TrEMBL record:
<dbReference type="GO" id="GO:0003677">
    <property type="term" value="F:DNA binding"/>
</dbReference>
<keyword id="KW-0804">Transcription</keyword>
<dbReference type="Pfam" id="PF13411">
    <property type="entry name" value="MerR_1"/>
</dbReference>
<dbReference type="InterPro" id="IPR047057">
    <property type="entry name" value="MerR_fam"/>
</dbReference>
<dbReference type="InterPro" id="IPR009061">
    <property type="entry name" value="DNA-bd_dom_put_sf"/>
</dbReference>
<dbReference type="InterPro" id="IPR011256">
    <property type="entry name" value="Reg_factor_effector_dom_sf"/>
</dbReference>
<keyword id="KW-0805">Transcription regulation</keyword>
<keyword id="KW-0678">Repressor</keyword>
<keyword id="KW-0238">DNA-binding</keyword>
<feature type="domain" description="HTH merR-type">
    <location>
        <begin position="6"/>
        <end position="75"/>
    </location>
</feature>
<dbReference type="InterPro" id="IPR000551">
    <property type="entry name" value="MerR-type_HTH_dom"/>
</dbReference>
<dbReference type="GO" id="GO:0003700">
    <property type="term" value="F:DNA-binding transcription factor activity"/>
</dbReference>
<protein>
    <submittedName>
        <fullName>MerR family transcriptional regulator</fullName>
    </submittedName>
</protein>
Length: 275
């Protein structure tokens, strides 16, 4: 079938799956004008205008604003046009990072809701076996205030995680060195961890969370509330266990949105049975 040379505004809009109002708007802002306007005031478009409209549609699909597309269409300065593309690529990178963050948070929330259906009792101390796990670790910057220190380490772990597209996020929390709760400087050599799976490359920020026997407790609390560990430590002494490694505080769900509400957490202390 022979191509038409002249199209009405309705025909041209339908060809690109846009509305007549979109073409009218493009005309008014000077982005894409009709080839001519007939005696009755109707906008008409020519076959030769199709490539330009295709270019506009592609740039719009790439997320460019209409004002930036207008600058590209002018084609008066190669450097400025390339700069616009660089800016758009940077914006897309930021959007990708934001989506990856949302995916990570969504996975974390899924784990929380899975835990709601698990068989555990709040504040009940129990003993169970745990598998060895791999995690990214970001140590605390002791020059910062407590909240900023924890937030900075958390963001570092997010950054490390997002550098690897195929790994599986399994949960996060705070690792305190053995004896930290009795120390005047509990945050020294401690930090935030992100448990991950499916990573094969060696990485300087990777640590191993030990497996074996653990004394555990689910509770509401935040990192640094070491008084919440007192009953666990007493349980360990009373039942003739010995702490063998670092204390792990798993963050099950963060309650940023509930004023005065602490995080749902799970404490994990590695132990061995004394003879």
């Amino acid at each position: 079938m022979e191509e038409k040379e002249i199209y009405t505004i309705t025909e041209f809009a339908e060809m690109f799956r846009i509305t007549r109002q979109t073409l009218i708007h493009y005309d008014k802002i000077g982005l894409f004008k009709p080839a001519k306007i007939n005696d009755n005031g109707y906008r008409l478009y020519e076959h030769s205008q199709k490539p330009k409209m295709i270019e506009i549609m592609q740039l719009k699909d790439a997320g460019m604003s209409l004002s930036d597309i207008m600058e590209v269409m002018k084609k008066n300065n190669a450097d400025s046009i390339l700069a616009l593309f660089d800016t758009q690529i940077a914006k897309l990178d930021d959007q990708i990072l934001e989506l990856q963050m949302k995916k990570l948070i969504t996975h974390h929330r899924k784990m929380y809701y899975q835990s709601l259906f698990g068989k555990y009792e709040l504040n009940k101390i129990f003993v169970s076996e745990e598998q060895e796990r791999t995690a990214f670790f970001a140590p605390f910057d002791l020059s910062l205030e407590e909240d900023a220190m924890i937030d900075a380490a958390y963001r570092k772990c997010v950054e490390l995680t997002l550098q690897h597209t195929n790994i599986q996020f399994e949960g996060c929390g705070v690792l305190f060195r053995k004896g930290a709760c009795h120390s005047a400087d509990p945050y020294r050599d401690s930090g935030v961890f992100f448990i991950i799976k499916n990573i094969s490359a060696d990485h300087s920020n990777l640590i191993t969370l030990s497996g074996g026997m653990k004394v555990k407790k689910y509770f509401y609390g935040n990192p640094g509330q070491f008084e919440l560990l007192c009953d666990v430590m007493q349980y360990i002494d009373d039942h003739h266990y010995e702490v063998t490694g670092n204390i792990v505080l798993h963050n099950i769900v963060e309650n940023y949105y509930i004023a005065g509400k602490n995080d749902l957490s799970m404490l994990e202390v590695p132990v061995r049975k004394l003879p």
